[in-house]
Amino acid sequence: MSAPIKPLTQNFAVAPQLGPDDMADVAAAGYKSVIINRPDFEGGPDQPTAADVSRAAQEAGLQIEYQPVVGSAMTSADVARFAELLRTLPGPVLAYCRTGTRCTNLFAAAQQLG
Predict the structure, then answer these.
(1) pLDDT exceeding 70 applies to what percent of the chain?
(2) Which domains are present in the chain?
(3) Element (DSSP H or E) covering residue 79
(4) Is the pLDDT of residue 2 over 80?
(5) If DSSP codes are grouped into helix, strand and coil, which group holds residue 107?
């Protein structure tokens, strides 16, 4: 896998941009679910799309959720949805965005919801 994974808890980790070729490695590392928080084409036309990553994730046996969040415009609805995904997705869960920071911020905010 090309991107480093940063565990935040035993059941949740974040990573920078992942692509379709990373999904088999994510599954092999023991993750059961992936949350994509990076909007499609945020980084330009060369960024892997959520649809392409989702196909590869499903082929690798992962559950996948696309929850695009603009980092500078995160809303309470974004946080509530992220918290819901953490409660309902099989773990461990890996979330990714451009650098991992947006996912880390979503996780911290979701933890405040209880």
Answers:
(1) 97
(2) 6-112 (3.90.190.10)
(3) helix 76-88
(4) no
(5) helix
